[in-house]
Each structure stands twice: as structure tokens, then as C-alpha cells.
Amino acid sequence: MKPQVLLSGASGLIGTALREILAQEGYGCKQLVRRPARTSEELEWNPQSGKTPDCNRLSGTEIAIHLSGANISSTRWTDARKRVLVQSRVEPVRALAAALCQTEPRPKVLVCASAIGIYGERGDEVVDENSAPGQGFLPETCLAWEAAAAEAAACGIRVVSARFGIVLSPRGGALAKMLPLFRLGLGGPLGNGREWMSWISLEDTARALIFLGQRAIDDPSAPLVEAVNVVAPNPVRNADFTRQLGHVLHRPAILPAPAFALRLVFGEMADQALLASTRVAPTRLQQNGFEFHHPALAEALRHELQ
Ligand SMILES: NC(=O)c1ccc[n+]([C@@H]2O[C@H](COP(=O)([O-])OP(=O)(O)OC[C@H]3O[C@@H](n4cnc5c(N)ncnc54)[C@H](OP(=O)(O)O)[C@@H]3O)[C@@H](O)[C@H]2O)c1
After folding, report:
1. 55 falls in which pLDDT band (50, 70, 90)?
2. Is residue 265 very low, low, confident or very high in pLDDT (cuts 50, 70, 90)?
3. Per the database record, which ranges form the NAD-dependent epimerase/dehydratase domain (predicted)?
4. pLDDT at res. 95
5. 305 assigned to some structural domain
6. Ligand 1 pocket test, candidate residues 16, 71, 198, most atoms within 8 A of CB
């Protein structure tokens, strides 16, 4: 029988895709919801106010996957918004870790979302899980997020921080924001186009989460706490990404978005997220035998946009 999964942030981009694949593969899935529960598969929690799920109802969970957090790119990073971004990540996973530790029998693994934003701006350097974190708001936020998740290890629960790259989907995230302009033939490279983009298809993202949870159960040598880059093995420069997206959409993609204009519109987010160059290798996923369905960008774009 497949293990029982507990999922937070289930209504989001990755959570929605993950629920579909879990159902296809025969996993049971309970969801933590921030509203009154509507079905027996839903458990109410209020991560911000500290209302944790009822531990009796968590019993039977073997894999917890925690994806919730206020959206990073939906609005400008004012000081108030930055506080929301941090608080909606650090406190909820800490509360969840405590609840999982009190659950009998204890779940085997907590897979918690993180981001390749932890590496910061790196130019042409290839970074993997052994690379040091960068500096700035995103790296600091990711570090605090991963440290809070790691608290579950104190009671023997394995903890995996899944450092997501740019998840490709027309339903949300960076690609969804680019699509309207590109479909009008008004897309083009960001900044000087030389920044590295480390991307992954939405389908491979969801599959990787299941792979990581399952591995923590099946492989006794899996580390107690580990970070894993969830990116495809072929990052590309922004100009290349732009060219391939235009090609898949059969539209020209030559109108550049200059760095100064992006800074004007997006403020600090422009340099830390849109213009940051991060060339990330999925070393641990590959070492552990994960097989990407979409290792090449053009095919991944075609798959997600079909
Ligand atoms: N998509 C990417 O390219 C990408 C890249 C790097 C990292 N990540 C990270 O991976 C996680 C999942 O990504 P996603 O793209 O699925 O995100 P998403 O679509 O924004 O969904 C996140 C979910 O978190 C919950 N949520 C929203 N606001 C919240 C708040 N203020 N406090 C607590 N929970 C809140 C919501 O679920 P409920 O209403 O069901 O609770 C929401 O559906 C996020 O933490 C994101 O930062 C994503």
C-alpha cells in the first residue's frame, strides 16, 4: 500500500499538480486548509495564529509535504510585505514540525518547500547543494525557513528542504506572468539576457516531491536533514529561455525589458528574483536516480503549454 501523505498549500500551483499525481499513483492525501474543513480529507489549521492541526487526525501520515507560504512575486516587496513573506513560512513550518513530533505513530519525513533563491546572485558559477548560501532577503528567508523545518529532526523525522527553481506552468508562477506579453509578440530578454535561469517543469516538480518523500521512507541511509535542488539538469541563459519560449509560441521575442525599467516597476524584487543569475545543478536528485520527464527546456515548455 502507498504511504499516506499530508499536504499544506494544497490549493497552490505546485500543490494542485501534486494532488493530481498523488491520486493517479494511488497515494492517500489529507490536506491542511486555512478555512473550515469541507471533507474528511481536509484538516483545518491556521498557521499564522498558531492553530495547529489536531494530532489525532494526523495519525497515519507517513509523508508530510509543506508548500504553504504567501506568494513571493504577487506584489512589491515593501517592509510589511517582506514580514508577511517570512512569517508565512517560518512560523507555520515550525508549528507543523511540533505537531508532527506529537503525532503517534510519528510521520517518517517532512518535505518542506524552499527555493534556489537561497543561493542569491551567482553570475556564471554552477551551484549545487554544497554551495554556500548567498546574501540578501531571499537567501536569509530561505535559511530561516529551512532551519525551522529542520526542527522536526529533533524527534527523528527526516527533513528534506526542496529548493525549487522556476517552476514552469501557464497556471501560475513566472511563466504565467510572461505569457500574455509573449503571446502578443511583445516579449524579450530581461536585463542583458545573460542571467542563468534554473527551471523545472511543473510535472517534474510534483514527481520530485513524491520521489523525495518515498526515498526518505525506503532508503535507511537517507540523511536526517538534507537540502535538494529541484531543478532540471539544463539551466539556460535568459536570452536563450526567451528565444525558446518565442519559438514554442511561434511569436517573435526580441523586445528587451531593460534592468532600469524592471527596477522601477518591481523595486528590490527585480534584482533579487528577476535579474538574479543562478545556475543550479540538481546534483542530489541525479545522484539518487531521479529521472526527469522533461530535462530539456523546449520540450518542457511544449509539454506545459500544450
Ligand atoms: N512556483 C515556483 O516557481 C516556486 C519557486 C521557488 C519556491 N517556491 C515555493 O514553493 C511553495 C509552493 O509554491 P507554489 O508556486 O505552489 O505557491 P502558490 O501557488 O503561491 O501557493 C502557495 C499556497 O500557500 C498558501 N498560502 C497563501 N498565502 C499564505 C499565507 N499568507 N500564509 C500561509 N499560507 C499561505 C495557499 O494554500 P492554502 O490556501 O491551501 O493554504 C497557497 O495556495 C511556496 O512556498 C513558494 O514560495 C515556488
Report:
1. confident
2. confident
3. 5-215
4. 93
5. no
6. 71
